[in-house]
Amino acid sequence: MSDQEQARSPEGRPPLEPAQPAAPGPEAHEAGEGARTPEKTRQESPDEQAARIAELEDKWRRALADLDNLRKRYARELPRELEAERARVASAWLPVVDNLDLALEHADSDSGAIVSGVKAVRDQAVEVLRSFGYPRYEETGVPFHPEQHEVVSVADDPDTAPGTVVQVLRPGYGEPGRQLRPAAVAVSRKQE
Known about the structure:
The protein is of the alpha+beta class. The chain has helices at residues 3-6, 26-30, 46-105, 111-131; strands at 136-137, 149-155, 165-170, 172-175, 178-181, 183-188. Helix 3 (46-105) packs antiparallel against helix 4. It starts with a helix and ends with a strand.
């Protein structure tokens, strides 16, 4: 088997040869650059060039068609994926709604049981949010961080350093850079 037969592509076509630099024209010889002799390269006939051009155009058209088909398939699949995601999120909240219904059915009974039931439902809802990647945070005594906290009030607290979260008025959900909402906090100010 010759080297040329081994270098053929799986389709049996010879590989494309890299473009060769053009031979210097007569102007280059006059400028004194004629000392170099151009390499001898096989010149393609016009029929071979036309066949190569047709082959490249065919590949280009097939690539465009593949891209167009991919865009159409994505446009068809996107609504289905969105609907499946909405159904998954809604089904994760169904147990929370069911437990709220149970709490309302027992509203006439012991009020202490109702309060503990509502707390359990709240904990279940917080767990659903955590499972989606939005954990609850409501720490006090931590330094104020603008990506996690929203200052809604300032407090005088001589026992804490300035810029420390002293009270969480509304908990935050998520992590820095990926939040549903920041925590609304009261922050200690510098004593004067």
